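Priority: medium. Attachment 1 of 2:
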C-alpha cells in the first residue's frame, strides 16, 4: 500500500513460447528468468500482492518457490498467442473481485524484463502518486533515432530516404526519442476494466529507464545478451 492506495502486481507467464521455448524459466544468472521479476516485485514495499498468472504447472511451482502466489490456473482461451495482456490482467482482477478483494491499481510486470528492479517499480508508483495520474508506463531511449530510418522501395533507391531538415545533422543534434520497453505498466483498475487498454488517452505519464536495464527477452539473442551483461558484471 502507498498513500492509502493498494497495488496488485500481476506477472503473466504462460507455458507456450514459439520463438524461445521455455523462456520464462530459462536460466539467467543461476535462477529462472521469472524469478528476477518476482524478486523485484516482492522487494517493492508498495506492492500488496504478487501473483503469477500461468497455465503451466511447472511455472506455477517455480513461482511459488520464489514467493509469488498462483491462485488460479489461467484459462486456456487466455493462454494462446492471440490472448491479450489486458484480458489476462482483467481476469486476475475479476478473480479477486469475486472474492471481495479490490485493488486500486494493477502493476503488470512481464517476466521478460529481468533487469527491472524493485527500485524502478517504487519510483514508477511514486511518479503515479506525485503527478496524480491514472497510469504510468516505462520507456527507455531508442538505440537509434527513427529520423534516420525509412522504408525502401523494391529497387532499393535511397532518393528522399532522409528528410531535408535532418540532412547533415549529427545524431546528438536530433531530438530525443523513447520507446516502450515493456517493463512496467501501472493502471487504475477501474479504468483498466472499463477501457480495456493500458494506454489511457489522458492522465498518463512515462517512467524513463536506462537502456541497459530495459532488455526484453523475446528470442535467444536477447537471452544471450542478458547473460553477457551478468557475466561481465555490468551495473544493472
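Attachment 2 of 2:
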Amino acid at each position: 500500500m502507498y498513500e492509502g492506495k493498494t497495488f496488485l502486481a500481476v506477472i503473466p507467464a504462460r507455458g507456450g513460447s514459439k520463438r524461445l521455448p521455455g523462456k520464462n524459466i530459462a536460466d539467467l544468472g543461476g535462477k529462472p528468468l521469472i524469478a528476477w521479476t518476482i524478486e523485484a516485485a516482492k522487494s517493492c514495499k508498495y506492492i500488496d500482492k504478487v501473483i503469477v498468472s500461468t497455465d503451466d504447472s511447472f511455472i506455477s511451482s517455480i513461482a511459488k518457490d520464489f514467493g509469488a502466489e498462483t491462485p488460479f490456473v489461467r484459462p486456456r482461451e487466455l493462454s494462446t498467442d492471440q490472448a491479450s495482456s489486458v484480458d489476462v490482467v482483467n481476469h486476475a482482477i475479476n478473480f479477486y473481485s469475486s472474492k471481495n478483494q479490490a485493488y486500486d491499481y494493477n502493476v503488470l510486470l512481464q517476466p521478460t524484463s529481468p533487469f527491472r528492479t524493485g527500485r524502478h517499480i517504487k519510483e514508477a508508483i511514486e511518479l503515479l502518486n506525485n503527478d496524480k495520474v491514472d497510469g504510468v508506463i516505462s520507456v527507455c531511449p531508442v538505440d537509434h533515432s527513427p529520423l534516420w530510418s525509412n522504408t525502401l522501395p523494391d529497387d532499393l533507391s535511397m532518393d528522399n530516404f532522409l528528410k531535408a531538415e535532418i540532412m547533415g545533422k549529427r545524431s546528438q543534434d536530433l531530438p530525443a526519442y523513447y520507446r516502450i520497453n515493456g517493463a512496467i505498466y501501472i493502471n487504475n483498475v477501474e479504468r483498466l476494466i472499463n477501457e480495456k487498454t493500458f494506454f489511457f488517452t489522458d492522465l498518463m505519464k512515462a517512467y524513463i529507464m536506462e537502456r541497459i536495464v530495459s532488455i526484453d527477452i523475446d528470442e535467444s539473442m536477447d537471452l544471450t545478451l542478458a547473460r553477457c551483461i551478468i557475466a561481465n558484471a555490468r551495473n544493472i
